[in-house]
Amino acid sequence: MTAHDIRAPLRAELDRWQAAGKTARFWLRDDDAIEPTPALEKLLGLTGAAGVPLTLAVIPASTGEALATRLADESQVLVALHGWSHTNHARPDEKKQELGAHRAADVVLGELRDGFEILQQLFGRQFIPMLVPPWNRINGALIADLPELGLETLSVYGAAKARSPIRLLNTHVDIMNWHGIRGGRPHDELVADVVTELRTRFDDDAEPIGILTHHLVHDETAWAFLSDLLTETITHPAVAWKSAASLVDA
Ligand SMILES: [Zn+2]
User: Fold this and answer.
1) What is the pLDDT of residues 27-80, one digit of tens each?
2) Helix, strand or coil, per DSSP, at residue 248
3) 3-state class (DSSP) for residue 238
4) Are 239 and 14 spatial neighbours (Cβ–Cβ below 8 Å)?
5) Distance of CA 11 from the midpoint of ligand 1 (Å)
6) Helix, strand, coil % (nearest 5) of the chain?
7) Cα(216) to centroid of ligand 1, in Å?
8) 30 CA → ligand 1 middle, Å
């Protein structure tokens, strides 16, 4: 099958949205940035050429002036808080977590407060007060304390819970396979996932579709999917790629 065929179900679903006069909202979150790298250049090149807004989840303990300088003129790029140092504090038999219940709440919240200040100082107006927990996990008991730190939005993975003490801007399609051989997931599978997300929103567009990428570990399959997805969607009248800031303001 050609790449064209693989994307046909996506095109068909978007055509259905267009025929119904609907617009599907997408947003792009990429995790783990700390500094300029060739992979980051590739990501910025792809999204910049497509005119698609990008939110980078940046690790505050490891980042610095180099990334801030590189991003300063990127008008379509925002920075969100990606935990503190991306350190796993869970036991070996548990799923990885930095912001879990393994440490006292004031310790974890103190790290987030420090991280918030670092990113705000480095990135200024490009920083949005949104927390992206490493591994998309956070101790639920901490969430109600986030607004006090200035964090207005939480971004994890999966459909947003109906009841949340904080605004959610989630991601829904992760282009990477984290099990076994690390690499981009098969394109037909990813297209099917995006189509499923679109179908669940056709009658009730409760939340935008978040695409999740990790530029530092992309292989050719992952890069090709991102590139193809952008190419396919940016010209489709039923798609609007939104910045995280515009989505949380709405
Ligand atoms: Zn991460």
Assistant:
1) 999 999 999 999 999 999 999 999 999 999 999 999 999 999 999 999 999 999
2) helix
3) coil
4) yes
5) 31
6) 45, 20, 40
7) 10
8) 9
Question: What number of residues does the chain have?
Answer: 250
Neighbouring C-beta atoms of residue 169, cutoff 10 Å? 25
User: How far is residue 240's CA from residue 54's CA, in Å, rounded to a whole number?
Assistant: 13
**Rounded to the nearest 5 degrees, what angle is found at the Cα of 143, between the Cα atoms of 98 and 110?**
55
CATH (one of 3.20.20.370, 1.10.260.40, 3.40.190.10, 3.40.50.300) for 3-249: 3.20.20.370
The H or E element spanning position 39 is helix 38-50
Q: Is the pTM of this model over 0.70?
A: yes
Distance in Å, CA 96 to ligand 1 centroid = 11
**Domain boundaries, given as residue ranges, for the chain:** 3-249
Ligand 1 center to 214 CA (angstroms): 8
Read off the tokens for 66: 């180099």
Whole-number Å distance, alpha carbon 31 to ligand 1 midpoint, is 5
Q: How many angstroms separate the alpha carbon of residue 55 from the centre of ligand 1?
A: 13
> How many A from CA of 245 to the centre of ligand 1?
20
